[in-house]
Design brief:
The structure holds two protein chains of two kinds. Chain A is α+β, with helices and mostly antiparallel strands. Chain A is 34% helix and 17% strand. Chain B is an alpha+beta fold. Classes of the chains: A alpha+beta, B alpha+beta. The complex binds FE2/S2 (inorganic) cluster (FES) (2 copies). One FE2/S2 (inorganic) cluster (FES) sits between chains A (101-106, 137-140) and B (193, 244, 487).
């Protein structure tokens, strides 16, 4: 039916080879082809951030990115943040500070927060607010999310 | 025993009021939680719906032949497959329709092997419509010559409610001031991040299992059954984790019976899941209303009466939206001491989307009116608003005209705390004085309050909850409860209470609350009731278990049960904390002794509230509570843009149980209220939604969330668990009018129809200038 192609990329630290329809979005590939349902669909139009993943160290909305464009790149999804040692500092901060309610926005929110706190070790609350503007949450009012980001900045500083 | 006696003592530590993490949070943070949206069952088909896309029409013909021929399609259903299967509050709805009454009416549905095939099949269905003239406002719907939307509801009349107390004419004659306004709260929708989804499957005996996002699993069975021609007892409801609910899942919506009808026809599990656009168009809304309100007072600032004449835009079908007058009238009659009240509300069918319940349930709309009129009256009497509010505040022990008994009432404390912490009175005077000065940006401060049920609301015959609690041989506690977790945090509260009562670690408490075949009855997550009702149920069950355990300990240790206590996983002497035996060891001894016993208890808790009743004169909640919000804003008088700089809030929470969860609920509730106040708006053009996406329907984003100063007033509710009251709706209810009052303080203008969008505010300011001859 639809045209397919084979792509190779790194997913959460492991090499992946997969055949995907050329029209497929990365979000659909992750969820339906690779079974990584952590990354969420909430709008499919780049407006909510629920589908945020890291690609080559930067974050983007996987609902907008074609799966074929993953070829040769390095992806990290919410499932790839934690290590055998446990949750990464951003995830832990979100849990400890009560930032998670229904949690549906959280995979995207946490990936984005993790990127922001990695990118700028001095990240302020105001900068975090702006950096999370593209991540909608209907439950939390963002206050505890920002508390968590501040804690993650601190935890990462101590961990360095 | 000897070595136990020398073990270190275990001190009494309470968890009540501490910060406890949600047990479901870690899996959510690592992407492991499997939401209903993520679920896939073997052999599962995908169901898709054909929506009408027009507001009012006769269906002339439907041709499904091409869709049925498409490879991969297993079933195509239309209105005739749901004929006679009417459901809903007044049985005016059906899973698939025989006539179009609103844009999202479900005309046909397919089940196919993939989303793509299902979508294609939908595109192949040919429907011929004959469009009918529509009705898009309740005023138009109420006209004599208005088109009829339902044959059996003449005059387009849906539900009607009234309540009156005292003589309005006499009270009005005694009034020195009367405010009289029309408020028009608008259409908004829940915007759960997880879109609507249901999975249905039948076993060979014809018993249905439905995986749904419902927040009221037990009544849900009763409400779903007629849509399918089933007995409620033949429905098993499973509630996987959901991406938000906020009241939107407090009814059956057509996609759920559609999934079931498709599953029945195909004999396979069928999943229906909405795209965001479908979610915007097909979800319930908050109930829009036209509220004509009048409030009077005497020269000394004493309220004399309040009347409200309400017209509700019912939309095409009757869900919970048009029942909100039940709560609206409590605010009209109980928001401050109002001796004389007259309330009427008529819902009128229109060809608009229809409303369900939404956090704040009628009180968002009512407080928008009452709290602004309080501010206006204070101005007319020339009283400082705080003083005006205090003068009319109820105190503990008062009974409202509807017989809401305000047992523990701390409205005065809430007012004083919020006003004091924000320096309200001084700033208000200063900003009002600066109004006339030149300058584009104006600061304003506004205060609003409200009252809400905080111990459930007995609108069903029962407002109770069943709890089953067992403690196993390893001192692990399982709580099987009717209370649903929809993200709000009840699992954390239940965990905390069990750990508090039984002295076990939080991690040793397991909750089973997602399967109607297992867990006992509960009314559902609504009416700010779950912490109150499920909290009481859990505590009572835990105390029964504890009594059984301590009685066994008394027998085994020879020390009186009432001198013993459960702490730190052990039985201890209450007075000194000396551990006597490990709890798990005791439990095993109980189990394996000559007369063995297991610890498994049941409890049914029914709050001491009275049924609402047809006259609406009853103490319908086991508790009531107040909140006061103070909003500080900056208004750009050129663009009309409002920036909220700070919110100070004082709320009667009864008693803090889980401090972290409490804060989280208040913060999240405020955010929904802020969106309602400032930006959220369903743009309907003759019944068609013009902004079904997040780009054009603006939710609050992180940079727009202002700093918060939260104050929890602990009134210690006699009936509440540890003194707690329900809390989660007031934050959504009170903030919008606080901002409206701040807007007035800053600019002298008022907006009566939310949201207070830049355009509306700029127009109002401009009109004021024109009127002043500027
Ligand atoms: S799902 Fe990708 S931004 Fe919303
Ligand atoms: S936690 Fe529910 S949407 Fe963010």
């Amino acid at each position: 039916m639809s045209l397919e192609t084979e792509i190779n990329f790194t997913l959460n630290g492991r090499p992946v080879t997969v055949r995907v329809p050329v029209a497929m979005k990365t979000l659909t590939m992750l969820r339906e082809v690779l079974g990584l349902t952590g990354t969420k669909y909430a709008c499919g139009e780049g407006e909510c951030g629920a589908c945020t993943v890291k690609v080559d160290g930067r974050t983007l909305n996987s609902c907008l990115m074609h799966a074929v464009d993953c070829d040769g790149r390095e992806l990290v999804t919410i499932e790839g943040l934690k290590s055998p040692a446990g949750m990464n500092p951003t995830q832990k901060a979100f849990v400890d500070h009560g930032a998670v309610q229904c949690g549906f926005c959280m995979p995207g929110m946490i990936i984005q927060a993790d990127y922001l706190t990695d990118d700028d070790p001095q990240l302020t609350r105001e900068q975090a607010q702006r950096g999370l503007e593209g991540n909608l949450c209907r439950c939390t009012g963002y206050t505890k999310v920002l508390d968590a980001v501040e804690a993650a900045v601190e935890a990462k500083r101590c961990g360095r | 025993m000897d070595q136990k006696v020398t073990a270190p003592t275990i001190e009494k530590k309470t968890l009540i009021g501490q910060r406890v993490k949600k047990p479901d949070a870690p899996d959510k943070a690592i992407g492991k939680t499997r939401y209903i949206n993520d679920m896939v069952l073997p052999q599962m088909l995908i169901g898709k719906v054909l929506f009408a896309g027009r507001p009012h029409a006769r269906i002339v013909s439907i041709d499904t032949a091409a869709a049925e021929r498409l490879p991969g399609v297993h079933a195509v259903l239309t209105g005739k497959d749901a004929a006679g299967l009417r459901f809903g509050f007044v049985r005016d709805n059906a899973a698939l329709k025989d006539k179009v009454r609103c844009e999202h009416d479900e005309i046909a549905a397919v089940a196919a092997e993939s989303e793509e095939i299902a979508r294609q099949a939908i595109g192949l269905i040919e429907v011929v419509y004959e469009d009918l003239p529509g009705v898009f406002t309740p005023e138009d719907g109420a006209r004599e010559d208005a088109p009829q939307i339902h044959d059996n509801f003449p005059g387009n009349k849906s539900l009607y409610f009234e309540f009156s107390h005292g003589e309005v004419a006499a009270a009005e004659a005694d009034s020195d001031f009367v405010v009289d306004n029309v408020f028009r709260p608008h259409h908004v929708t829940h915007c759960c991040m997880g879109t609507s989804c249901a999975i249905a499957d039948f076993d060979h005996n014809g018993k249905l299992t439905i995986w749904t996002q419902t927040q009221y699993p037990y009544n849900y069975k009763m409400d779903l059954a007629p849509a399918l021609g089933l007995q409620p007892g033949d429905i098993r409801v499973i509630q996987p984790p959901v991406g938000g609910a906020f009241g939107s899942k407090l009814d059956v919506y057509p996609y759920e019976p559609i999934a079931a009808l498709l599953a029945k026809r195909t004999g396979r599990p069928v999943k229906v899941i909405y795209s965001r656009e479908e979610e915007f168009k097909a979800s319930p809304t908050r109930q829009p209303a036209i509220i004509h309100m009048r409030t009077g007072c005497t020269r000394d600032g004493t309220l004399t009466f309040r009347t409200a004449d309400v017209l509700l835009d019912n939309g095409a079908y009757t869900s919970w939206g048009p029942t909100i007058p039940v709560i609206m009238m409590r605010t009209v009659s109980g928001h401050y001491r109002v001796p004389v009240v007259d309330f009427k509300a008529q819902a009128i069918y229109t060809n608009n989307p229809y409303a369900g319940s939404f956090r704040g349930y009628g009180n968002v709309q009512t407080t928008w009116a009452t709290a602004q009129q309080m501010d206006m009256l204070a101005d007319m009497v020339d009283m400082e608003p705080l003083a005006f509010h205090l003068k009319n505040s109820q105190v503990s022990g008062e009974i409202t005209p509807q017989k809401s008994f305000l047992r523990e009432c701390v409205l005065v404390e809430c007012l004083e705390t919020a006003a004091g912490a924000s320096d309200y009175s001084r700033k208000r005077k200063e900003y009002a004085a600066a109004r006339a000065e030149p300058g584009r940006y104006k600061k304003g401060i506004g205060l609003a309050s409200s009252i809400h049920n905080a111990g459930g609301a007995k609108i069903h015959k029962s407002d109770g909850i069943g709890t089953i609690l067992k403690v196993d041989d390893y001192a692990r506690v399982t709580v099987i409860t009717g209370a649903s977790e929809i993200g709000q945090g009840i699992d954390a509260v239940i965990t905390l209470i069990v750990a508090e009562e039984l002295g076990v670690p939080l991690e040793h408490v397991l909750i089973v609350n997602n399967d109607s075949d297992i867990a006992p009855w509960d009314v559902g997550v609504h009416a700010s009731r779950t912490t109150f009702i499920a909290g009481n149920g859990t505590r009572r069950a835990a105390r029964k278990a504890k009594a059984q355990i301590l009685a066994a300990a008394e027998k085994m240790l020879g020390e009186p049960a009432d001198t013993l206590e459960l702490r730190g996983g052990s039985v201890v002497r209450d007075a000194c904390g000396t551990p006597l035996i490990k709890l798990d060891r005791l439990l095993r001894q109980m189990h394996f002794q000559a007369e063995p016993e297991l610890v498994m208890v049941t409890d049914y808790y029914e709050p001491k509230s009275e049924p609402e009743g047809a006259k609406h004169v009853s103490d319908h909640s086991a508790a009531y509570s107040h909140a006061v919000h103070v909003a500080e804003i900056t208004v750009d008088t050129l663009t009309g843009e409002i920036t909220v700089d700070k919110i100070t809030m004082a709320q009667d929470v009864g008693r803090v149980i889980n401090r972290m969860g409490l804060e989280a609920q208040i913060e999240g509730g405020l955010a929904i209220g802020l969106g309602y106040a400032l930006s959220e708006n369903m743009l309907l053009d003759r019944g068609l939604l013009k902004n079904p996406c997040f780009r054009d329907y603006k939710l609050l984003t992180a940079p727009e969330m202002p700093p918060l100063d939260l104050h929890f007033i602990e009134s210690d509710c006699a009936e509440g668990p540890y003194g707690a009251k329900g809390i989660s709706e007031l934050p959504t209810i009170v903030i919008a009018p606080a901002i409206a009052n701040a807007l007035y303080n800053a600019t002298g203008v008022r907006v009566f129809d939310p949201p207070m969008s830049p355009e509306k505010v700029a127009r109002a300011i401009d009109a004021q200038r024109q009127a002043a001859g500027g």
